[in-house]
Amino acid sequence: MALAPKPKTAAGYSLEHADACEQVLVTLLGAFGGLKSTLRLVGGLVPRYLTPQMPPDVPPHFGTSDVDIVLNLQVIAEGNGYASLAQQLKDRGFEPFEDDNGWKSAWRWMRKLSEKEYVLVEFLRGADAQCRAFDIKLLDGEAVSALAIEHAEIVHDWFDSREIKAPLLDEGGISIEVIRYADVVAFIILKALAFDSRGEPKDAGDLLHVMRYAGPPDYIAAKFIDKFLSGQHRPALLAGLDALQKKFAEGSGVEGYELTGPVKYAQFLFGRGEEQTDERVAAQRYASGLVTHVLELIREGTA
After folding, report:
1. 60, 53 contact by CB (below 8 A)
2. Is this model's pTM higher than 0.85 or not?
3. What are the domain boundaries of the chain?
4. Rounded distance, CA 164 to CA 25, Å?
5. Pick from 85, 45, 48: which is nearest to 69 by CA?
6. Fewest CB atoms less than 10 Å from the CB: which of 100, 112, 204, 237?
7. What is the pLDDT of residue 277?
8. 123 Cβ partners below 8 Å, 6+ apart?
9. How many CA atoms lie within 13 A of 165 on its CB side?
10. CB of 119 within 8 A of CB of 20?
11. Chain CA centroid to CA 124, Å
């Protein structure tokens, strides 16, 4: 279900993959006991909840092959109501991910579904002066670590929640859980920054899916404007909008649809090819046009 390597196109993902990730998510929550309310879901599973499918207007999201969780390290450090987190994870069938060279990770864990299938779980944290972006730091007293991501901490304030029902792994019955996940603004910011950093087609696909189906452009822009007016996390807002402008939008001195963002978005949808098909070019123009329009509305609302 996960990795080796991640699929580069939408065709490599499926609803079955996403369902398995949701099962892993609810199984994972049990390992955190009373601290599960502090977990924040980010990454490719989030569009499943931000843009619930409502055919024909809102198609199902492509899916994902892993589960990304932002930890609240301060709360975990202060918590005394749980046993060793690593042991709790192992008791629920999770194990540290081991790469082809035999190196085991403390921030990436995996949950096997079968002999050949597994879902990867990645533990993340916000970067700060003590742990810079992309550094990995062990949790105090734990055999679990978290990868620092720039501005990931915004999801502790900017999140939505909903109740889901999903079967636990190992025939554990159906679990009813409240999950907390990045809201529209936090998701767009973190996906824009992720794409700016690594240029993955899947990040562009996730980003445009949410910008297209979470609501019309004025709705998306209004969400951003509200965040600006709140005064919270202004550096994250500015960094995310700058990444959107630089990678997707008109006004950078080149045709917007030729920027890497729209190009990778179209490649994710239709694959790579020698020729620029009409379908791919139309997708590129749509992506750049949508992002440009949303950014214009945000600028007008915050001027």
Report:
1. yes
2. yes
3. 10-182, 185-302
4. 11
5. 45
6. 100
7. 86
8. 69, 71, 107, 108, 109, 144, 145, 146, 147
9. 2
10. yes
11. 11
